[in-house]
């Protein structure tokens, strides 16, 4: 494969470390860890073991890094063709594909072992499933064949909250699956906004992303539809599940309203890449702050404050 079989080129050991670090696409991982942590805090009713959190987040980091490294190996041909990705470690010749595969396997094994030994087997299997689904279903099967690639493939990015929940409880409840569904529905607006920004790159290497195959207007309509789905679904955590309260409701209302407004603005100007960029960036902020709202709402101290405020307001209303 052209551009991917060069001998590794490095000036020093630190350059080697940097190249392998870049293989893991580290900018993607923090958001996955935030969703994992949010699930842990809700599952633990706001009280979690710091040691367990550290282990789970480390295991999740290793699993995500493994999946992303495998992805870099598989996609090295299209990475070489696109100017935006040609400088990545494998297409630039700084890391040999075989070495990257070994690295990815080691990361995956370490992740599974960490979960299985120090947490529980269910969380270990879920993390392993995340790696497998991302590689086999999304990267290998869907990414180069279907416009629905990131819809179905989005299930891989929805697994971290399942891992976090299972780590605390040892099982999977309706709440865990609701967190999964929320991220699953959030993924299309998030990723298609990015696809609108770099549509030409995908077209250059024949990746059938929705904007490439169906055009911008169809894509923004789909973004609008999924945004209208994910925002109401986020409130199911309050009712009927009863796992969140007023504080989370405040976060979800404000964040959801802005999310819908941005999706509407993008629908009015499908070819405006600045609006697509704004939508993409906000989608990240939306999920980060929504998870923050989950954590804050779950804290026992916040429950006490909320109960006190509600009692005061009730008393004031009765005396008015």
Automatic annotation (TrEMBL):
<feature type="transmembrane region" description="Helical">
    <location>
        <begin position="219"/>
        <end position="239"/>
    </location>
</feature>
<comment type="function">
    <text>Converts heme B (protoheme IX) to heme O by substitution of the vinyl group on carbon 2 of heme B porphyrin ring with a hydroxyethyl farnesyl side group.</text>
</comment>
<dbReference type="InterPro" id="IPR030470">
    <property type="entry name" value="UbiA_prenylTrfase_CS"/>
</dbReference>
<keyword id="KW-1133">Transmembrane helix</keyword>
<feature type="transmembrane region" description="Helical">
    <location>
        <begin position="174"/>
        <end position="198"/>
    </location>
</feature>
<feature type="transmembrane region" description="Helical">
    <location>
        <begin position="95"/>
        <end position="115"/>
    </location>
</feature>
<comment type="similarity">
    <text>Belongs to the UbiA prenyltransferase family. Protoheme IX farnesyltransferase subfamily.</text>
</comment>
<dbReference type="GO" id="GO:0048034">
    <property type="term" value="P:heme O biosynthetic process"/>
</dbReference>
<keyword id="KW-0812">Transmembrane</keyword>
<dbReference type="GO" id="GO:0005886">
    <property type="term" value="C:plasma membrane"/>
</dbReference>
<feature type="transmembrane region" description="Helical">
    <location>
        <begin position="54"/>
        <end position="74"/>
    </location>
</feature>
<feature type="transmembrane region" description="Helical">
    <location>
        <begin position="121"/>
        <end position="138"/>
    </location>
</feature>
<keyword id="KW-0808">Transferase</keyword>
<feature type="transmembrane region" description="Helical">
    <location>
        <begin position="150"/>
        <end position="168"/>
    </location>
</feature>
<dbReference type="Pfam" id="PF01040">
    <property type="entry name" value="UbiA"/>
</dbReference>
<keyword id="KW-1003">Cell membrane</keyword>
<feature type="transmembrane region" description="Helical">
    <location>
        <begin position="245"/>
        <end position="264"/>
    </location>
</feature>
<dbReference type="InterPro" id="IPR006369">
    <property type="entry name" value="Protohaem_IX_farnesylTrfase"/>
</dbReference>
<keyword id="KW-0472">Membrane</keyword>
<keyword id="KW-0350">Heme biosynthesis</keyword>
<comment type="pathway">
    <text>Porphyrin-containing compound metabolism; heme O biosynthesis; heme O from protoheme: step 1/1.</text>
</comment>
<dbReference type="InterPro" id="IPR044878">
    <property type="entry name" value="UbiA_sf"/>
</dbReference>
<feature type="transmembrane region" description="Helical">
    <location>
        <begin position="284"/>
        <end position="305"/>
    </location>
</feature>
<feature type="transmembrane region" description="Helical">
    <location>
        <begin position="28"/>
        <end position="48"/>
    </location>
</feature>
<dbReference type="InterPro" id="IPR000537">
    <property type="entry name" value="UbiA_prenyltransferase"/>
</dbReference>
<dbReference type="GO" id="GO:0008495">
    <property type="term" value="F:protoheme IX farnesyltransferase activity"/>
</dbReference>
<protein>
    <recommendedName>
        <fullName>Protoheme IX farnesyltransferase</fullName>
        <ecNumber>2.5.1.141</ecNumber>
    </recommendedName>
</protein>
């Amino acid at each position: 494969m052209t551009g991917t079989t060069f001998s590794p080129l490095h000036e020093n050991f630190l350059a080697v470390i940097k190249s392998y670090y870049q293989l893991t696409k580290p900018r993607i991982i923090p958001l996955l860890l935030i969703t994992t942590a949010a699930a842990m805090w809700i599952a633990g009713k706001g009280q979690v073991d710091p040691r367990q959190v550290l282990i789970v987040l480390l295991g999740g980091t290793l699993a995500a890094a493994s999946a992303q490294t495998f992805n870099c190996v598989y996609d090295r041909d299209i990475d070489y063709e696109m100017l935006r990705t040609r400088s990545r470690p494998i297409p630039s010749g700084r890391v040999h594909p075989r070495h990257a595969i070994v690295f990815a396997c080691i990361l995956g094994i370490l992740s599974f072992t960490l979960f299985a030994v120090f947490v529980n087997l269910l969380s270990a299997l879920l993390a392993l499933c995340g790696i497998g689904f991302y590689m086999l279903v999304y990267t290998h099967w869907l990414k180069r064949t279907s416009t629905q690639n990131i819809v179905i493939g989005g299930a891989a990015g929805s697994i971290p909250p399942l891992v976090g929940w299972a780590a605390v409880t040892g099982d999977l409840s309706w709440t865990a699956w609701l967190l999964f569904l929320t991220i699953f529905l959030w993924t299309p607006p998030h990723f298609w906004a990015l696809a609108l920004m770099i549509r030409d790159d995908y077209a250059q290497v024949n990746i059938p992303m929705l904007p490439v195959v169906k055009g911008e207007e169809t894509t923004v309509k789909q973004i609008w539809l999924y945004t209208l789905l994910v925002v109401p679904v986020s409130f199911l955590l309050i009712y009927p599940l009863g796992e969140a309260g007023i504080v989370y409701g405040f976060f979800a209302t404000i964040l959801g309203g802005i999310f819908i407004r941005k999706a509407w603005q993008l629908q009015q100007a499908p070819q405006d890449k600045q609006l697509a960029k704004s939508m993409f960036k906000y989608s990240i902020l939306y999920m980060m702050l929504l998870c923050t709202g989950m954590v804050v709402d779950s804290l026992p101290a916040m429950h006490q404050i909320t109960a006190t405020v509600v009692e005061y307001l009730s008393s004031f209303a009765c005396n008015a």
